[in-house]
Structures are given as structure tokens and as C-alpha cells.
Amino acid sequence: MASGKTPTLALRSAKGVEVWTPEQQKQQLTFLPDTRFTPDQSKSCRAIVYSPDGRFLAWANGSTVQLCRASADWQTIASLPRPKACYLRFSPLGNFLMTWEVYTENPQETPKEKPNLFIYRAETGEEVFSIIQKRHQDWHMHWSCDESISALLVGGEALFYDHGTTGPGFKQVAKRFGGLRNGGLSVAPGPSPPHISVYIPGTKGAPSMCRLFKYPNLEMTQPVASKSFFQADKVDMMWNRKGNGLILLTSTEVDKTGESYYGKQALHYMTPKGDSCAIQLKAEGPIHDVAWSPKSTEFCIVYGYMPARATLFNLKCDVVYDFEPGNRNSIYYNGFGNLVLFGGFGNLPGYIETWDLVRRKKLANFKAPDTTLLEWNPNGITFMTATTAPRLRMSNGFKVWHYSGALLGEYNWNGELLEVLWQKYPTGTFKETPISDEKIAGIVSTTPVASKQKYIPPGARNNVAVTASGETVDKRPPIPGLPPGYQSSVQIKNSKRSKKANKAAAASTDEATKTEPASQSEPKLQGTKKKGKNIATVGDVANGIADKTSGPSTPSNNDDQKAPATGDPVKDKKIKTIQKKLKEIKVLKEKNERGEKLLQTQIVKMNSENQLIQELQSLKVA
Is 243 left (phi over 0), alpha (psi -120 to 50) or beta? Predict the structure, then answer.
């Protein structure tokens, strides 16, 4: 770690904005408010952001956008008059601050349309650019790494501005690229002049297309690479840090094949050298997350139904390593790319597993319940998890973990915590630390663990007993206000009738057992008559050859009754098989009567009922 560099934490909550400093005490991190920073106690802060190099901190408090210098004295640079700002973003080198607010019109004013995207110089707070930007997604200006080129997608047109030594800057549009209505734009990292990727939606049955251009050659006839595809309502373009690889995540809102409720997704790969291909995955299911390694030599994809798979690919889209399946839906690389963290958040209960990518070895596997936000520390050794509103409004707070799974520090927030950010630092500030298998001693979390006991309603908590077999018995009376054990007259009458029926059945069984010859192996059950209705013998019903004059029988009793033994094991096995088929045919006939569509094989099986009955009769007679 770089000497004297301790990243601070910026917190945005319902109380305002604060900056905290962690202090190491043995194996525990203690978080204390930074006394050099004056907290903003506004209760309607909408956004907060550090510049990529950590020099500046900006936040929108509902009346102004505050811009301050992240230094020893946290000096305020400017209070920008943007009360409705809800999105903030810095340029790659931190020289410009972009603010965006929801677009509105006022017919009573002239002009009725006013700019809602503003760009300020971070060093001074001077406004240098403003424009009407109605797009909610992809609202911000795209920059090259050295900030020599910027591009903005407005409506269906991409506007390019040249900020070089001889360029006009924001005063004049240097290049234009049209035909991008509902499309997308991305500027590649890496050396200048940069590569530009554009997404052109398909119309009237034509495929959608993504094309790469080398700035300033932006003519449609001058692409360096091109990839076309169908079924794409939206395309996410993800460059690696070096700008020599581009992943396209295409998705549709509705899957017309009906295979997925969440729409259709696909992955494609492109390079500025002209290569393009579709990324082949080994399992069906949704694509949960895609992430590039900071080393720009490989990327990872989490996909498939749970337990989801995770696979590493190289720049040729060849599989490098398959991680073991697990309950995961997100990927987080540390800043050096030697560690990767898989998380199972959202609809999963906070699973976390860390891996050493150099050795392809799992280092830890633990849980951080109710995690809504995760971010690696710039030092690449620890990371922070937080429970924030509005996703969860209870038990808000944050924790700091070591990559070995040790909990180093935690803080339970009183009220609603909205966002927590690590302070950023330029690349090279921290040195990569070798990864070891040593288990770090941490602290015990004070967060209550969810009970695994079965939920019992409040009214039954003192009237429920659990038997030795694990069965829950409710001791409460059937009607509130009556003493335990109370039975109505109807319940008493039904109980007596059941007892008499059970005694009669037991007596008839005993009588049949006494009169039956000892040498006879096949049991005989006598049919009985009640109120003029014939009841067939159970054995005949089970064999499917009940007398035509017999009334309906109880299926639950017939299913449990075994077929009479013939003394021949082979015949007994055939009888049992035929009975099973007849039972399945009965189910198919019920489905057919309800109007359900049957397969051809099911229809053939249903039509074989008579043949099976005849075969059963012949076996019984024989």
C-alpha cells in the first residue's frame, strides 16, 4: 500500500452528506467522522460522487451542487445553482463535472425549453457547456482517456467536440454522426485518437448493427469492424481498459419464443482489428453479469439457472477456466485483477465467494445478508458491503471485509443510509499485494442472525406442542372462547359413527381370517351391501374388472390395496405392471374429458385399455 494513503468514505443519507475516516486498531477498523469536513445536513441529497483521481467530491443537496477539494482542508470550490440536479459525473481525468436534471417544459416562458445538462470546470466551478438532453439513460458526455475528444448522443445524432491544443472545445461541433435514434454510443479507452462504437437499431426487418470507427473517420463506409444481429431492443457496450476488446450484451424485453419470462439475451465480441464473433455459453438461462478484468486480458460471465455458472474467457473468446457452479449473480474485480468476488444479492441471501485468479483457488465463502451495495477498496485487499435505502429501509449500515472472509469493521446506521463510496485514487497509487491463504482474525458481527425456527402465529405460541416425531399439535379449541377439547354435537355424532364403522370393519376382517383355509394364499374379501347399493370386492376393483352392477368405489382405498397373489412371481409382476398402466390410463382419460391436449403416445396408451384388461383377466384365470 502506498505510504500515508488512507481512502476515506463518503456517506449520503437522510441526514445529509458526511466524510468518515477509518482507523486501524489491532484487527478492527473503527470509522470516525472526518473533523476537517463540514457535514452537509440537507435532508434531500440526491447524488454524490468522487472524481476518478479522488481530487474532488461533489454532491447535490436539493438546493445546490456542492463541489469541494478532497484535500487536507476539504475546501469548498463552488456552490453550483442546480437545485434539481439528480445525476452527477466527472470526466476521466477529473477536469470537468457533469450535472443532469429531468427535462421539463414551461409554455409560459420564452424559450419554453431550457438546458438540463450542464458541464462545469472542476478547478473553478465555471460553467463551460449546456444543452438540452432528454435521454434518461446514457445522458452523460463520453470522453476519451486523455479528454481530447468528447461525444454526446442527443436525439438520434452523435455530436463530437475536439478539446485538443488546436481544437475549438465546446464552442463548435467538430463531427456529427446521424441515424442513431434509439441507438447507442461509446468511446473506447486507450490511446488517442480513440475508437468509437455505435449501435444502430434495425428497422423494417433489417438486422441491428454495431460498428467501430477510428476517429475522425466516421463515414458509414469507413468502419474498422462491424457486427450485425437480430433480436436486440437494447445493447450494452463494454470496453476493456486498453480499448482492444468490446463486449456487446444484446437484450429484448420480450422473448417471442416463450422460453424466458425475462426476454432474450446474447453476447457478442468485437475488436478494432476487425474480428467479431458470438460468445458461446455452456448452459441455458439468463446472463446475470459480465465484467472485464482490469488487466484487459480476460473477462468473466455469470450465467444460467441457479446454481449459476461462471466462466473466464480470453481475448479469443476461448474458455480459460470454469468455476464451480454456485448461487451467484454478480462479479466484482479488485483494482489489480488478481482477485475476483462473486456475489449472490437481490433475490439471493448475500452469498459471497472470493477467488485468487492467479492460482484459480477459492479463498473464502461466507454470507453478508441484506447487501445492496459492494465496492472494493482501492488498495485491492478489503471491500465494503452496505445495506442501503430505498432498497432496504431497516438495519442500514456498512461493513468492511478482508478478502479472506474476516470482518474487519462494521457500523450500524441510525436511520436511512442511501449511499457509501470509497475515495478514488489514480492508477499506480497502491501497489499490488501478494495473495496468501492466511486467515485474518476479524471481529464478530453484532447484526442479529435470522432465526431458523418455524413461524408460529402470536395467538398459538403458548398453545402449540411438538411431538417426538416433529409433528406440531395445536392445543387451542376449535372455536375461540370454548374450553380445550370441546366438540359440537355434529362432531360427536361423526366421531361415534366413525368408531362403529371401524369396529365393524375390524370384526369382518377377523371373521374372514378365521374361516379362510390356512393353505389358501389368496385372501378373499366379502362384498357388503348398504342401503341397496352394491360395493364390489376390493380385489376386483384393483384389477379393473369390477362387476357392472357395483357402485363407485373409493379410489384412495383401491390404490393402496395390493393385487391377490397367484403364487407365480412372474405373473404377479405382470399383474402389477398392468395395474399401474391402467391407473395411468385413467388419469389420461380424465385429462381428455377436461379438454386437455394429449400427445400421440398418450393417445395410443389410452386406446390400449381394453387390451390390458383382457390380458389382466387371462392372467388371473390362469
Answer: left
DSSP codes, 389-429? TTT--SS-EEEEEETTS-EEEEEE-SS-EEEEEEPP--TTS
Q: What is the pLDDT of residues 579-591, one digit of tens each?
A: 899 999 998 888 8
Of 2-11, 84-93, 223-232, 378-387, the poorest mean pLDDT is in 2-11
Count of helices and strands (H, E) across the chain: 6, 40
Whole-model pTM over 0.85: no
Mean pLDDT check: name the lowest of 212-216, 228-232, 373-377, 400-404: 228-232
- Residue with the three cell numbers 481498459: 241
Q: Which amino acid is at 410?
A: E
Q: Which of 181, 186, 182 is nearest to 197 (CA)?
A: 186
* CB distance 423 to 70 below 8 Å: yes
pLDDT tens per residue across span 234-250:
889 999 999 899 999 98
Q: Check pLDDT > 90 for residue 60.
A: yes
Name the packing angle between helices 569-593 and 600-607 (round to 10°). Answer: 120
> In angstroms, how far is CA 86 from the centroid of its own chain?
26
Distances (CA, A) of 286 to 262, 330, 347: 8, 12, 14
Task: Report which of 386, 292, 366 is spatially closest to residue 335, judged by C-alpha positions.
Answer: 292
Radius of gyration over every alpha carbon of the chain, rounded to an integer in angstroms: 36
Q: Whose CA is closest to 171, among 181, 161, 158? A: 161
Backbone φ, ψ for residue 102 (5° rounding)? -60, 135
Residue 499 clears pLDDT 70, i.e. is over it: yes
Count, residues in the chain: 622
Residue identified by cell 470516525 is: 32
